[in-house]
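Practice problem: predict the structure.
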Amino acid sequence: MMNFPVPKRVIWISTDHMRYDCIGAHGNSVMHTPNLDRIVREGLSFDRCYAQNPLCMPSRASFMTGLYPQQTGVVDNGQDLPADFPYTVARVFKAGGYVTAHIGKLHFQSHEDNDLDPRSRHDYGFDIFWQAEEPGSYEDAYVTWLRTEYPEYVDMFRVPRSSSPSRDTEIDGKVLDAPWQASFSGWVAEQAVRCLKAGNRSEKLFIHLGFYAPHPPLNPTWEMFAPYKDLRIAIPDYPENEASDKPDILARMLLDRRGWEKSRFVEYRRHFYAMVTGVDMAIGHIIEFLDTKGMLDDTLIVFSSDHGDMCGNHRMLLKQHSFYEELMRLPLLLYWPAAFGRSGKRISGFVEMVDVLPTLLGLSGVTVPGIMAGKNYSQALKEGYEPDGKLDVYAFHGPGHMMLRTSTHKLIRYANGDEVLYDLEKDPMETKNIIGLPGSELLLRALKDRLFERTIDATRSIIPRRYRF
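Answer:
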């Protein structure tokens, strides 16, 4: 499109465990998210965006390279993306003339005891690299800042390492008597503003802001928790025998919290929502700075997550390879007044998180590497029409668990051959496995064929062909 602007700044905000329905403007009236609501009202909201893996590391390695998990080699937590991987978000934006910065959580590599390792950490191509993978577990950028700016709150915000048995209590909500500014989300916001202030206005800047919230520990400050303190919060009811028609691998997940009272799920969700509000406050702080400095209109802001959290749905918590909608359907927001205006648009077609990076590169005037598997929707967005999206969405989790979701059905195939099939039109809450019911056989066969077709496509080599023989 002629005369389409190039953003002077691209700010990609990624959260952890953030569900699609954790934004008030997405239909959840309980949520207190005024700044995200504004972005939905004035920007672009992709209403059917799906993750390629239900866990942190493989999902992040996928959407920040534009490749499927099998292509990056990261299909489960604990598998590091190679330090010299050539197609990271930083390296491809840098190739397009952007100075690149990272603040907060990246999670391309395992981080247990990383402050005990004297070797320098991998920066994956970022020019500025202020890393903090956990909210206070390590002597990292966040804790260093906290010791300087808010020394009296260091012990309050610090949490044990992720593999420590004492982390088992992190799902129990605890409100901290501390200022929001001292939280991990407050730190990310302040460092983002600092980075924007220090930037050369003549240089193009890409910043990735990695928020840890709303991932547990569920330790909001009182300011974050206040909107939910006395609020009535509902948890959906599910059939008592929901696990009975599921294969053992899924049934065990469904029964894992069977001893929990409903009230405990409610309190988990209450504190989880408060963590979301902490992120929303950070976004408001950043937007206010950009607006005050006259920088907002020519800044492309992207908001997304790596996966969701069950939050009591199906009587489950956290994430796992259940592939429920609560885990796989994510918020994806684009806000760029100079290019998209402020009238807002809801985009209904299927997109995958693997599509985000190619689309951002296209919008930013950066060449999209031909090896990227994600689809580039920038042309449609530049021309002002809604992208068609995809026929279906696909996910893969090691050692070989797969999901295919169409507009009407969802098929899950586990590595041992067990399968689950939901009719989403009749059963949108995904409670009944219809495999074996009359009329399901032909449908199952067709969906399996498509699932394997998607799997083959998602495993094509990214090594370029250099010779004809």
